[in-house]
Design goal:
single chain; 19-stranded parallel sheet; mainly beta; 43% strand; 466 residues; 17-stranded parallel sheet
Length: 466
């Protein structure tokens, strides 16, 4: 190693900035006017300075203690922290706030490529490669700071996570993440923004897993996530315009969520995932609209709502080619508005419904069920159906258990069993019709049910088994 009191040290000392100015600390072992190592340049840098790395391979473990410096290079500048060394590629300590790292390549980190403990760090235009073969499962970026920005980077073969963080106001934007060993982005903190990223072949974990409030997951693309594409725990999340292929589904636990205009295709049970295309739990309201879910592998439901969710809007979604129920409202849910959804090609056995409606006081309107075991399987109490339609069901078009449910202007077409089958009490069926029913037009085995103004024969007193 060069002696800093030799020519290099003298020339480097001349680069020390005067008050109010910033210096460029160049790193190039072949140039006497530059520092021989990245660490020497970082040690000499003052706040506001720039450390510029020339092309070459640097076998170092760099520690940053100075705030507001920029460390940059190009794709031919390579930091290798693991040959012959062992440790972190770049460690940013808590006092080094506002550091920017950009433009070069970090490879072979066997602990972490970048470990950040400071606020205001930016990691930009980097290539970070590791390997999942290390027993330590290194993360590409591990951060415990707030206001972290990670943008326009390429992560390949991170043994652990591409990014794991604890901190608020994290931005992960326009990155490409391939072959992450334990999940791509995993973090805890409020106001995380995960946008415009590409995920591919994420093993043994989720593509995106966030615990915190006010998260925004927007316009990401994923293919082959072993766990969830998106798993969120927290309130007021926004999940919009994401696309997943063979990327499993969403798991969202909270209230006030907005899940709109997402597309998921080829959904499997995956690693550690409950069998649902989209699974919602929590205690409050939300908006689930304009999503499209298609094609499942295994015994999987399309959309499932659990917990004591109240007042959720489920509108203009399309769910097709699932092996279990299409849209399932759980027994503790209440006051949903379910409007203009289309569910089709669900299971095929009698017990698998396009719409599985339980809980209390849900309002369904203008929904359509095609090619299901049952069109609408209804329990609970106080639901209303208006202008909903069922077509080509293996079982009945509308099956009513529970109590106090109203069907108004609904249509059951081509049911193999009954158009309307009732096994509960105090229901009202009015202004409705059945067409092309292979079994009974309607049957009633409950008590206190009222039929008025319908376009079918009076219901049979006994519902026949298929």
């Amino acid at each position: 190693m060069r002696n800093l009191f030799t020519t290099t040290g003298v020339l480097a000392a001349l680069l020390i900035a005067t008050p109010g100015s910033a210096a460029n600390r160049c790193v190039n072992p072949a140039q006497p006017s530059c520092f021989a190592t990245i660490q020497d340049a970082v040690n000499a840098a003052l706040p506001g300075d720039r450390v510029t790395i020339s092309p070459g391979v640097y076998f170092e473990n760099v520690i940053v203690n100075t705030p507001d410096i920029r460390i940059e290079g190009n794709a031919k500048a390579i930091l290798d922290p693991d040959d012959p060394n062992t440790g972190i590629g770049i460690q940013i300590n808590a006092a080094a706030t506002g550091v920017t790292i950009q433009g070069f390549w970090i490879r072979n980190g066997d602990v972490a490529s970048i470990e950040n403990d400071a606020d205001g760090t930016t990691i930009r235009n980097m290539q970070i490669t590791s390997t999942s073969e290390f027993a330590s499962f290194p993360d590409c970026v591990s951060s415990d700071g707030n206001n972290l920005t990670v943008e326009n980077n390429q992560f390949i073969g991170c043994g652990g996570h591409c990014l794991v963080f604890v901190g608020d106001d994290v931005l992960f934007s326009s990155n490409e993440a391939k072959f992450c060993g334990q999940g791509a982005v995993t973090g805890t903190g409020d106001r995380a923004i995960i946008e415009n990223n590409r995920f591919f072949n994420v093993e043994d974990g989720d593509c995106i897993e966030i615990m915190g409030n006010d998260a925004e997951i927007v316009n990401n693309r994923a293919e082959s996530c072993d766990g969830y594409f998106v798993q969120l725990t927290g309130h007021n999340a926004v999940v919009e315009r994401n696309r997943g292929r063979l990327a499993n589904g969403f798991g969202i636990d909270g209230l006030g969520f907005i899940v709109r205009s997402n597309r998921l295709e080829g959904i499997d049970v995956g690693f550690g995932q409950n069998p649902n295309g989209m699974r919602f739990t929590g205690t409050g309201g939300g908006d689930v609209s304009n999503n499209r879910l298609s094609r499942s592998f295994g015994d999987i439901e399309g959309m499932t709502f659990l917990g004591t969710l109240n007042g959720v809007r489920v509108e203009n979604n399309r769910v097709e080619r699932f092996t279990d129920d299409g849209i399932n409202l759980g027994i503790m849910t209440s006051n949903f508005t379910v409007r203009r959804n289309r569910v089709m090609t669900i299971g095929g056995d009698v017990g698998e419904a396009c719409y599985d409606v339980f809980g209390t006081n849900h309002a369904l309107e203008q929904n359509r069920a095609d090619d299901c075991g049952l069109g609408y399987e209804v329990g609970g109490a106080g639901h209303t159906f208006s202008r909903d339609e069922s077509r080509r069901t293996t079982g009945s078009g509308f099956y009513l258990g529970g109590d106090g449910i109203t069907l108004d202007r609904v249509t059951a077409r081509d049911a193999n069993a009954a158009g309307v089958e009732i096994d509960g009490n105090n229901h009202t069926v009015m202004n409705s019709r059945t067409l092309g029913t292979n079994g009974q037009e309607a049957c009633d085995e409950g008590a206190g049910n009222v039929f008025t103004g319908n376009n079918f024969d009076p219901p049979d007193a006994t519902c026949r088994d298929l």
